[in-house]
């Protein structure tokens, strides 16, 4: 492979890195494909074929001064990070406006990845806030809400630990849901006037895949039926896993 082809392939890999992280952060398929096509034109491509679904990105480019290249990228990580997606959108626009070189984009991409990573303490705060808010919303008392928030704080490190172990996502969600169900039942048994159902409903909302479901509906309206069906099925399956985790603990504890 000559130097020109090697450079073009390296640049295409950078573009695919950006597209992969956009997709895993919650971007719709149309946005990912459009961003990749625009960045490839900056690379010098004249003919561009880009196809993306929830788990795969395929790009083929060619041009008068560019060798024909095809790259396939498997997408297997999903963090649904809207802040990260905003930074990635800005990065892709800067590349298209030729404000930065593609090689510089790799450095900036690594910075975005590090800056957008949530710390354990921020996750604990978010889990507590979600649990507390929804427990009150569904009619729980202040005591129920505080207990639910405490369980949210305790679930965050469990979730982070399982995430670091790179377990199957469904197994991870099931174990977190089961842990939350166990703690809510335990709190109800040792506390007076605490409702395990109202405490659990706040903790359940931590794991409900609302963003995935919203993305699925968005894909349907964008005529990306395959990706929409994939994400819709994923949302339904995750919801069933969450429910199974809580029901399993309730049945086990009687």
UniProtKB/TrEMBL annotation:
Compartment(s): Cell membrane
Residues spanning the membrane: 125-158, 170-188, 200-221, 233-253
Question: Is the Transmembrane helix keyword given for this protein?
Answer: yes
Please verify whether the record's keywords include Hydrolase.
Answer: no
Q: Where is the Threonine/serine exporter-like N-terminal domain?
A: 14-249
Main subcellular localization, coarse class? membrane
**GO terms of molecular function:** transmembrane transporter activity
Q: Would you say which domain of life the source belongs to? A: Bacteria
Q: Which Pfam families match?
A: ThrE
Q: Which UniProt keywords apply?
A: Cell membrane, Membrane, Transmembrane, Transmembrane helix
The membrane topology term of the UniProt record is:
Multi-pass membrane protein
Family membership, please give it.
Belongs to the ThrE exporter (TC 2.A.79) family.
Q: Which PANTHER family match?
A: SUCCINATE TRANSPORTER SUBUNIT YJJP-RELATED, UPF0442 PROTEIN YJJB-RELATED
Q: What is this protein called?
A: Threonine/serine exporter
């Amino acid at each position: 492979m000559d130097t020109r082809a090697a450079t073009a392939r390296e640049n295409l890999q950078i573009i695919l890195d950006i597209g992969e992280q956009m997709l895993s952060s919650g971007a719709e398929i149309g946005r990912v494909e459009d961003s990749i096509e625009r960045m490839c034109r900056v690379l010098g491509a004249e003919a561009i074929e880009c196809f993306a679904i929830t788990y795969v990105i395929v790009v083929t480019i060619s041009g008068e001064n560019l060798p024909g290249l095809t790259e396939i990228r498997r997408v297997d990580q999903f963090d649904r990070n809207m802040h990260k997606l905003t930074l990635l959108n800005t990065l892709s626009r800067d590349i298209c406006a030729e404000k930065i070189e593609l090689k510089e984009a790799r450095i900036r991409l690594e910075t975005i990845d590090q800056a957008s990573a949530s710390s354990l303490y921020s996750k604990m705060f978010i889990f507590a806030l979600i649990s507390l808010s929804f427990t009150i919303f569904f009619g729980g008392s202040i005591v129920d809400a505080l207990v639910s928030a405490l369980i949210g704080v305790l679930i965050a490190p469990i979730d982070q630990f399982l995430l670091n172990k790179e377990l199957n996502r469904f197994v991870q969600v099931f174990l977190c849901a089961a842990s939350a169900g166990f703690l809510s039942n335990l709190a109800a048994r040792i506390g007076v006037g605490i409702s395990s159902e109202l405490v659990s409903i706040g903790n359940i909302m931590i794991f409900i895949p609302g963003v995935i479901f919203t993305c699925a509906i968005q894909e349907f309206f964008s005529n990306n039926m395959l990706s929409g069906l994939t994400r819709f099925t994923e949302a339904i399956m995750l919801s069933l896993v969450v429910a199974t985790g809580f029901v399993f603990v309730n049945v086990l504890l009687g």
